[in-house]
Amino acid sequence: MIDYYTAQQIMADLRRAEENGINTVLARADRHIMRVLNEYWNTGGTIQWIAQTPKDTEYADLNEYLQIIAHYKPIAIYHHGGTTDKLYAEGRLGSLRESLKYIRDLGCAVGLGTHDPQVLKYCYTEGYDIDFYVCALYNHTRHRELYLPDDRDAAFAAIQAIPLPIIAIKVLAAGRNKPREAFQLALENIKPTDAMAVGMYTQFQPDQIHQNAQTVAQLIRKSENESNRRTRSHGYTRSRRGIRCDGAWRS
Fold first, then answer.
1. What value does the CA radius of gyration of the chain take, rounded to a whole number of Å?
2. What is the DSSP letter of 3?
3. Of 48, 55, 141, 155, which one has the greatest count of Cβ atoms within 10 A?
């Protein structure tokens, strides 16, 4: 993947994503990615960026690194899920409150990533000042490369129970799940205010971005048509919302 994804190839895939109606990319905020995104925007790209902080081994001071991330104007910043889970296991999750507030002060929507549904429940119960969560459908922290159906069921239950917007990741189980079935299952089990972040790799499937976008669009249209027939109304009964650049959520 390192050999395939040159800066030019990353930008080509971002362009292809925009052509297929995808307006936001979720990407880690390392210096390489930030440099490529900056070059992409300088050549006319308009895709929005939700930034994931790197692992805690990749910076000396989180707040100082958040300033670097903010320089590239993401619409949101969320704290790395694996590091979140480590802090939770060590009983040090409360140390993040200051940095989460700092993200808000920088003008970005505030997010927290995790692979453990218990972390979602804990943070929501404890009233963490967060706009959205990023939750893996498989508990990579606990089971590494095992992708267990029970993990996915537990993640869906937590996602449904927490009213804040949640971005579901690892929907395809790193390529183990068939896209159409996995997308349909996720759409049926996340809230209308939630989203999916789907990893794509085009080296062996050059049309993968178009195929995935088309499949999701078809599934959403089918779901909305079925809902309309049942309720004799139009669209979802609850509004979909997006992130505003000042960090608020809009209807």
1. 18
2. T
3. 155
